């Protein structure tokens, strides 16, 4: 196996070493993700043993083998764990390898709702924080603690976490939020951090945050807290511990320090005691680290108890940890990149000297300074070992940012030279194909691309999908940008995406009176898709007359930045882009409820933006957000025991979209993926954007009449914090959340404002979420009840579902019905664009459900006894028959109540025939016959008006006697065709008048190509069908 091992001189290299065998009480883990800690690089730069030790502490993966005495783990279980890294004293290796060994009781069961990369951040630093609070500071643990401590008698105990944006600091906050006095009072939590992290920490539940670089921070904190009772020093170097001691109240107290000798003892108050211990004691083995450390069975017992606490999950929601993992920065590459990138960022000495390698790496975005996040690497999985790969060759790495070549012998230093990525055209098949997926959501936009080395879509290459995660004016790389634009008075777009968050550019917008366009996507929605009550759509900028213009401008901005991102990623990138862009395919995502008219308007906007040439509109493909999501779920690392033949639901609860899409599929095969849509998908307006609306209403109401009420900038700043921090971090069990308000640092007890921070109670937060959450739950219940049979599981994706509160609510609702709920492994923000690429490479949906009745006008004999014909205008045809127009003829029937293999209908006795009409196999055709006479010089261009009906049973007539469409009918467009070929293949007839004519019998066919509706002609020649072209001109 490959492993990162220590080497001379003071570096580490990737080498092949034997795969370890588990002992009787051990498990062998197939490592998928590793997370970096400062100790990892420290032990490489300052080795304590001879070369050849495996590096690394934090891992997450899947159990691959169990020891003979192990009964609490089985092969396939997801697991995270802590190893001792490159310390010495015993031969146990570290974890940065393809396989690692863990003692069975020192391993963490990963709850179903936690991704592997998040779980990798947990073992070491969460244990460090727990030891600090529940052993060194002797606080009461929320789990059985072998160290019995007397409960504090303080009425309002206070805790300071110094450098709270570090990994240990973030975990200390999470654990501190669980602290309670014997009377049930929570602890007051204070923190220090850089100003850029203050909003994040306030949103996480900290009462107040102070800038540790301020000369008065100790005095300010002591005044605000009244003097702290306990403290955790997450830096513990130079004067930090002494400064912290000055914040204690009378009587002093204890400081838990995480380092032994980097801090200065001078200046520490005599009544304040710094206490140090090493996390390694928790493993229960003797090691050499800061001297020889004896085995501590009692500390090992504590680790076992703490890891059991984590494994059990949250009491409110067992599918997640009781504490949140660290934010993840997924780094490019695997083991080979850890020394060259990760260790350079971590450094090998003081925290204050960290991040010096970023400039040496040429300003690469992944080399930005570390800030409130954990560096995580994905190890390359072997085919056959990944659960997704065991289902077939459909697993794609979604996390590799770029692939580099490099040498194993590069030293660990700040002068690393990173080779440019080679031009893939040298390595790849000359038939390389570029596909770009674009997801324009109501509030956020994302894009991903894929380069395939084979044009055969059924032969799925094992290549990575790359999200575009660097956009203009982003402070830090992010795969999402706001779907917001600013327009000037001439109708020209001036600001896009992250530019609309830049204070300097927003000042320009204000000075020049540029107008903001937001939530504009919802204006393209079907007219029958109602908005939530009391919701008012923002107006378009005055110089923009239609939403198609904004789609065009957004598409143009996105593709230009995809191009810019692409050419920077590769050597000779400009030429490589030109070579691939000439036949580039584009996949656009649409909500489930958007049909051909809306797809066509988006296609025209994309063509107008220059994505493809006007003559090549067919290179723009469409996939529903629901289908993209199910592909992402089944391509993810984890699919929780999906049984072949079982029905599954995918719920895409949009965080960046104003819509929620729910689909239900029968899984016919996993190798390869074959799916059958078994009920009409749901689409309704309801997502994170409407939580924002309700939050803004709440904030405006709370601030009304205060010092902050008259300042619109203050409201928008508060909403920015709510969107970026509060909404995402709310778990549902917090007592309160805080939003920092711009302006004065004053308090207003009546409005719940404390030192310029608005407090929102946990109950108020739940009420802000409730209307939208209830809407999503109602949609899921409708799908479940309409199916009426067992559901194997529900997959939840979408930005709104990233909220732990939302996820818990959905799990609780489904759990009451006996249905498990899970998330795919990986960032949900990528689900739609990555899923769209997976769909493009090989759509797994073979059968779909018609969500509308499709048909056209026909004529029928007049029946005076038919009350439905009352008022219809009758006419007499050439044969003297009385006829009526405006009658409805169904070409494709909408699905009714279905079950596997047949369709039940009250209007027919033949379920088998209806099954073919209701259930649409990809590529299937449905036709309407025509019989018409044409003279020699008559135009051969024909048209058929195409309509759709939304409800279950269409009436006999689609227009009333006034010629207006009956409620439920939609005019989609016109099918246009040329019968010249059919005419030439037919024989002349001669009328009694001597006029020559031809009788043409032909069908206009509707073809269901994926989710798009297409048309063509069909007629017979010599008993065989011949086909001709037809197009659908949609009402746009």
Automatic annotation (TrEMBL):
Pfam families: ADH_N. SUPFAM superfamilies: Actin-like ATPase domain (SSF53067), GroES-like (SSF50129), NAD(P)-binding Rossmann-fold domains (SSF51735). InterPro entries: ADH-like_N (IPR013154), ATPase_NBD (IPR043129), ER (IPR020843), GroES-like_sf (IPR011032), NAD(P)-bd_dom_sf (IPR036291), Trans-enoyl_RdTase-like (IPR047122). One of its GO terms (molecular function) is oxidoreductase activity, acting on NAD(P)H. Residues 7-357 form the Enoyl reductase (ER) domain. It comes from the Eukaryota. This is Enoyl reductase (ER) domain-containing protein. It comes from Gymnopilus dilepis. The lineage of its organism: Eukaryota, Fungi, Dikarya, Basidiomycota, Agaricomycotina.
């Amino acid at each position: 196996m490959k492993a990162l091992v220590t080497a001379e001189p003071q570096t580490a290299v990737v080498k092949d070493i034997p795969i370890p065998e588990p002992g009787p009480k051990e498990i062998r883990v197939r490592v998928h993700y590793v997370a970096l800690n400062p100790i990892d690089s420290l032990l490489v730069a300052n080795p304590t043993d001879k070369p050849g030790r495996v590096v690394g502490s934090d891992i997450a993966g899947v159990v691959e083998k169990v020891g003979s005495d192990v009964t609490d783990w089985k092969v396939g279980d997801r697991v995270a764990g802590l190893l001792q890294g490159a310390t010495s004293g015993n031969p146990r290796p570290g974890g940065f390898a393809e396989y690692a060994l863990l003692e069975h009781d020192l391993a963490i069961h990963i709850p179903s709702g936690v991704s592997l990369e998040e779980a990798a951040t947990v073992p070491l630093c969460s244990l460090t924080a727990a030891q600090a609070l529940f052993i060194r500071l002797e606080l009461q643990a929320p789990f059985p603690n072998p160290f019995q401590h007397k409960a504090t008698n303080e009425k309002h105990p206070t805790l300071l976490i110094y450098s709270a944006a570090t990994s240990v600091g973030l975990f200390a906050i999470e654990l501190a939020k669980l602290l309670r006095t014997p009377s049930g009072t929570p602890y007051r939590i204070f923190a220090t951090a850089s100003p850029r992290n203050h909003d994040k920490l306030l949103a996480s539940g900290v009462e107040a945050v102070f800038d540790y670089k301020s000369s008065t921070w100790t005095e300010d904190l002591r005044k605000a807290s009244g003097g702290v009772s306990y403290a955790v020093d997450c830096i513990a170097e130079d004067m930090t511990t002494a400064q912290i001691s000055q914040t204690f109240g009378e009587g002093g107290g204890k400081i838990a320090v995480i380092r032994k000798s980097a801090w200065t003892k001078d200046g520490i108050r005599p009544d304040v005691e710094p206490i140090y211990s090493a996390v390694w004691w928790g493993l229960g083995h003797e090691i050499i680290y800061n001297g020889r450390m004896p085995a501590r069975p009692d500390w090992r017992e504590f680790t076992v108890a703490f890891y059991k606490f984590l494994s059990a999950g949250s009491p409110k929601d067992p599918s997640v940890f009781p504490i949140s993992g660290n934010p993840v920065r997924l780094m490019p590459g695997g083991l080979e990149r850890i020394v060259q990138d990760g260790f350079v960022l971590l450094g090998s000495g003081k925290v204050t000297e960290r991040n010096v390698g970023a400039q040496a790496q040429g300003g690469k975005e992944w080399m930005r300074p570390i800030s409130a996040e954990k560096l995580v690497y994905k190890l390359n999985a072997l085919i056959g070992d990944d659960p997704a790969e065991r289902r077939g060759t459909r697993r794609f790495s979604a996390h590799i940012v770029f692939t580099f070549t490099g040498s194993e012998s590069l030293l660990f230093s700040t002068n690393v030279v990173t080779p440019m990525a080679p031009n893939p055209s040298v390595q790849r098949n000359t038939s390389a194909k570029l596909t770009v997926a674009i997801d324009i959501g109501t509030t956020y936009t994302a894009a991903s691309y894929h380069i395939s080395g084979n044009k055969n879509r059924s032969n799925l290459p094992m290549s990575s999908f790359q999200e575009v995660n660097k956009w203009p004016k982003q402070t830090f790389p992010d795969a999402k940008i706001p779907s917001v634009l600013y327009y000037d008075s001439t109708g020209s777009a001036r600001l896009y995406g992250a530019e609309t968050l830049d204070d300097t550019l927003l000042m320009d917008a204000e000075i020049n009176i540029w107008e903001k366009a937001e939530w504009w996507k919802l204006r393209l929605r079907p007219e029958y898709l109602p908005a939530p009550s009391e919701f008012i759509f923002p107006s378009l900028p005055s110089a923009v007359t239609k939403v198609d213009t904004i789609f065009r401008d957004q598409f143009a901005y996105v593709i230009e930045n995809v191009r810019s991102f692409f050419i920077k990623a590769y050597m000779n990138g400009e030429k490589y882009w030109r070579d691939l862009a000439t036949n580039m395919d584009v996949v656009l995502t649409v909500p489930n409820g958007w049909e051909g008219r809306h797809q066509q308007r988006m296609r025209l906007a994309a063509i107008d933006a220059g994505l493809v040439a006007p003559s090549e509109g067919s290179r723009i493909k469409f996939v529903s957000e629901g289908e993209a999501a199910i592909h992402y779920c089944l391509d993810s690392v984890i699919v929780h025991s999906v049984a072949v033949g079982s029905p599954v639901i995918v719920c895409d609860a949009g965080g960046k979209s104003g819509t929620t899409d729910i689909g239900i599929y029968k899984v016919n095969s996993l190798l390869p993926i074959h799916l059958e849509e078994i009920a009409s998908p749901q689409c309704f307006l309801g997502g994170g954007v409407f939580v924002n609306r309700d939050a803004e209403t709440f904030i405006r109401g709370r601030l009304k009449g205060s010092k902050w009420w008259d300042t619109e900038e203050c409201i928008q700043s508060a909403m920015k914090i709510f969107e970026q921090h509060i909404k995402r971090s709310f778990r549902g069990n917090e007592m309160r959340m805080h939003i920092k308000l711009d302006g004065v640092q004053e308090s207003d007890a009546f409005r719940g404002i404390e030192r310029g921070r608005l407090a929102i109670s946990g109950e108020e937060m739940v009420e802000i979420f409730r209307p939208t959450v209830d809407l999503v739950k109602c949609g899921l219940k409708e799908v479940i009840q309409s199916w009426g049979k067992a559901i194997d599981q529900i997959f939840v994706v979408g930005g709104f579902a990233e909220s732990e509160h939302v996820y818990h609510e959905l799990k609780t609702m489904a759990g009451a019905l006996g249905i498990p709920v899970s998330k795919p492994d990986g960032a949900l923000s990528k689900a739609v664009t990555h899923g769209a690429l997976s769909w493009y490479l090989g759509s797994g949906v073979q059968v779909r459900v018609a969500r509308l009745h499709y048909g056209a006008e026909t004529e029928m004999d007049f029946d005076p006894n038919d009350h439905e014909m009352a008022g219809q205008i009758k006419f007499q045809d050439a044969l003297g028959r009385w006829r009526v127009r405006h009658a409805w003829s169904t070409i494709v029937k909408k699905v009714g109540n279905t079950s596997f293999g047949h369709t039940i209908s009250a209007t027919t006795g033949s379920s088998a025939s209806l099954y073919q009409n209701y259930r649409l196999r990809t590529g299937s055709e449905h036709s309407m016959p025509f019989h018409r006479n044409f003279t020699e010089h008559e135009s051969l261009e024909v048209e058929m008006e195409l309509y759709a009906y939304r409800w279950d049973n269409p009436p006999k007539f689609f227009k009333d006697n006034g010629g207006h469409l009956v409620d439920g009918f939609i005019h989609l467009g016109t099918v246009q065709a040329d019968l010249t070929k059919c005419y030439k293949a037919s024989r002349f007839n001669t009328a009694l008048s001597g006029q020559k004519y031809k009788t043409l019998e032909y069908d206009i066919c509707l073809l269901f190509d994926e989710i798009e509706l297409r048309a063509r002609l069909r007629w017979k020649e010599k008993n065989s069908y011949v086909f001709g072209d037809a197009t659908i001109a949609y009402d746009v």
